[in-house]
Amino acid sequence: MATAIRMKRVGAKKAPVYRIIVTDDRKKRDGRAIEVLGMYDPRTKPASVELNNERVQHWLGTGATPSETVRNIFRKVGFYSPEGPSVERSKELQRAVSVIAGEKTHAEKVQEIAVETQAAPESGEEE
Q1: Mean pLDDT, to the nearest integer, of 41-67?
Q2: Both 97 and 58 in a single domain?
Q3: 15-26 burial by CB neighbour count: b if 16+ within 10 A, else e?
Q4: What total number of domains does the chain contain?
Q5: Are residues 14 and 75 in the same domain?
Q6: Structural domain of residue 31, as residue ranges?
Q7: Considering the entire predicted model, what is its pTM?
Q8: Where does the chain show beta strands of DSSP type E?
């Protein structure tokens, strides 16, 4: 079962308050939740967020994918770096693929260029 962390609307008409929940990603927006992780009230200035940090870390660790809106809220609170975990993970995968394919890493290429530039002026002076 794939899990998602998303918002469930509660509150009165024209006065939204959202619960941040963990649910099966096939369920409806306001469907049954596996667990309630916190609340988000966009009407307060600034918008108030209450989270159970321990449980959020647990669900992120088990592979639950947050929605875009929840991801942005987590960034503001400090759970994500600005570029997001998916960018870091994709860079790691690209490095692994290039190493497996026998390509040189960026650091190796830079070092090779540095060695070539140091060797080029020396050969010019000897002539």
Answers
A1: 89
A2: no
A3: eebbbbbbbeee
A4: 2
A5: yes
A6: 3-80
A7: 0.61
A8: 3-12, 15-24, 35-41, 48-51, 65-66
